[in-house]
Specification:
9 strands, 5 helices, about 190 residues, alpha/beta, 5-stranded mixed sheet
Amino acid sequence: MSTATGTATEGVSGAVIAKVGQPAPDFNLPSTKDIETLKENVKLSDYKGKWLILFFYPLDFTGVCSSEIVHFSERFDQVKALGAEVLAVSTDSVHSHRAWLQAPADKNGLGEIRYPIASDASGRLARAYNILIEEPHIALRGLYIIDPEGILQYSVVSTPSIGRSVDETFRVLQALQSGGFCPADWKPGEKNL
């Protein structure tokens, strides 16, 4: 796996391992960008010049994953207002993603989501972020913020049973965008140190 630019951190196997302050691992993944044909991939270069909230989730058709995907979609106007984009990724196939998006609510369906979901079926990108659970081939909940130049600026990983906070993600994004030092519990609009 290659990086967007510059040098990369390599793991034991020689594969690129994501590291805060370094270029984010490059990707070119099948996605739901074109829900009908599933033929429009999503690439890191698609987000050049924008902030990217990239998050991995374990499995389609599951409750905690559904809640995160829906909450980011419901607040997508705020994401756009912050000059950012969102991309969700799992190791499920793009066909599974489409089925999940098109399934009725009483069958755990998602409905319309305002950003793409990508398929990392090989697990290469999850491996690059060091969050792939080899057996059963699913990702931990990893959330990353990549700046407009493709540099990984933020990383948080949790167990599959804990959903992420959209509010905290927005707070961190705005702290990064402030360009200064932000003390504990800093909130948008407050002064930097």
